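Review form for a predicted model. The reviewer records the input and the model, then writes brief findings.
Reviewer: anonymous (R2)
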Amino acid sequence: MSMAQPLSEHTAHHGRLLQLAPGARLYRQGEACAHYFMVLEGWVVQSMVTRDGAVQILDFAVPGHVLGLASATGPMRHTAQCLTKVRVRAHASAQLPHMLGKDARIGHLLLQAACLNEARAHHRLVHLGLRDARQRVAQLLVDLYVRVTGHAPVRAGDSMVLPLTQRHIAQATGLSGEHVNRTLRRLREQGVLHFTKHRLHVLDPQALWAVAGHA
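Model under review:
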């Protein structure tokens, strides 16, 4: 079960339900934000721009992800932008203490969400620092597959919609666009995966799992 379901059940009478178009921003890096958000449908990219203009994607938020919990601590440290049509529930950060006082279960679920976000960030940092290009790309794709479908790919031919471009993959893995293109081509030629037209096709689940470092 996605974390979005229990959180939605406990907060259904709080916050505002928003429908957002691709390209819309939930918040911008360096600006104040008065809300945090629960993603119910769609994909949101979280990214940071460095002083020299380089873009680093920090994470992709999918249904069940909680965004903007740091909004109560000051200006946002990154930007959250919709990759697809997105449905979120927006909650006023100032109302969070009141919500927690009325229902401790909400606090437990939000803490769980924050811990999962932190664990995933640590995991990705290890892969960015210690893995080669092939492993970085494979790990990113495996992570997204598991988060969206709820399970690892198990059969040749398993596939999923992946609304990313090679540029997104490059910005998420710290690689150049050319390097990502060569890596995806190599993985396709080796019969591991095929990524085309916003769909990821798993050709050899065991090989993909091994390349991603899970063997």
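Findings: The helical segments are 4-11, 96-102, 104-130, 133-149, 166-173, 177-189, 205-211.
Further findings: The longest strand covers residues 35-41.
Recommendation: see findings above.
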